[in-house]
Amino acid sequence: MNPNLRKRLLGLLLTFFFCFLGTSAAEGRLPELPDELRLFQGQGREIHLALPVQASVSVDRPDVVMLNGQTASSMTVSLGNPLQLSPLHSGEAKLRMKLFGQIPLKTVKVNVIPDLKVIPGGQTIGVKVKSAGILVVGHHQVTENNRKISPGETAGIQVGDLITHMNGIQLKDVKDVAEIAGQAGKANKPLKITYKRNGKSFTTSLKPSFDEQDRAWRLGLYIRDSAAGVGTLTFYAPDQGVYGALGHVITDMNTQTPIVVGSGQILQSSVTSISKSESGDPGEKRAHFIKEGKTLGNIERDTHFGIFGKMEQNPDHSVYKSAVPVAFADEVKEGPAEILTVVEGQKVERFKIEIVHVSKQSVPETKGIVLRITDPKLIEKTGGIVQGMSGSPIIQNGKLIGAVTHVFVNDPRSGYGCFIEWMLQDAGILQNNRSSQNLKAG
């Protein structure tokens, strides 16, 4: 072919291609191919570009990623068809695409991660947690010499502060406070108080006052060292012996501050009744801890994405008896899905939902999924999402993708969910393999 004619044809093809790209972008149909793609070993993935052109595709590590079921390091494909990636071994590979075999289109870093599967939960669990110190939940007035004072407030201690030490003694139980305060009061000496506020440690001096009405030495503080409630188990990872639940942080009901976990446990629980959700009223599951029930696991961490700890075996009543794949955040799509939860007794059931919005998150953030309950049975029973349902696992296309976290107060059939990826990271069983460049960009 005449070289000039070849150049003209190539120019026409490029003009057509870029016109197509511009039109598709304007219509919102242009697919987005990320700079980095993460895959679990053994779990295939398809790339849909839907572009009416031929391209050469190459991979520098065909031992890590196989293209379209072939071990070849390069091939010519039609971008109008899905490109199939089959991750063979953990490691990194670079996928390069060139238009017409000459013009660079995209280079994608493919990060293959060892396979990870977990058993979805859905069981209602009782949660008991002790804080790593004594939480201040309020101030009260002490009557001393016919005047009312609050020694704690005078010392600058605020609601939400976590008192960790008194006179160098680490506080492990709220009962210890009265004894230490009494000793200091009788000796007419101030207490050295060590406390935490917003993650930082401070010290102050506090002189107990003798309450003439109660005939006892008081600090002028309302305090608490434990909390209890009901939630839902999200997953159990049998290979690692750990679990995740709730999908959101445990906060103190009075101060709304996150509880710093000292110790805790999750227990078998049974739903006795449900207060239905209505607009303006989120409703709740009513449940009791089973007296003869065993402890399911301990609580080691309380994070923005739930509670996590050790668990020796999968609890009873699971819908899934074996582990299933999990999805990265960028795999979650709008469309039908289901949740697993309990509405009566201990029976875990499947209920249909619709995922109506998926946020693009390259770093851990809450509220990644907006979902809507569509199952008539669940709507009839609960009115939508109720308190105690948080942590209910979300399943899409056979993969665990996230957990229910919050209800929309004015629309109880809708609510938020978090991506399972972030829960798995906080559980310590999935490493953050994104590049630092991508983290900064996110």
TrEMBL record:
Coiled coil: none annotated. It comes from the Bacteria. It holds the Pfam family PDZ_6. One of its GO terms (molecular function) is hydrolase activity. SUPFAM superfamilies: PDZ domain-like (SSF50156), Trypsin-like serine proteases (SSF50494). InterPro entries: PDZ_6, PDZ_sf, Peptidase_S1_PA, Peptidase_S55, SpoIVB. Residues 200-439 form the Peptidase S55 domain. Keywords: Hydrolase, Protease, Serine protease. Its EC number is 3.4.21.116. NCBIfam families: spore_IV_B. This is SpoIVB peptidase. The lineage of its organism: Bacteria, Bacillati, Bacillota, Bacilli, Bacillales. The gene is spoIVB.
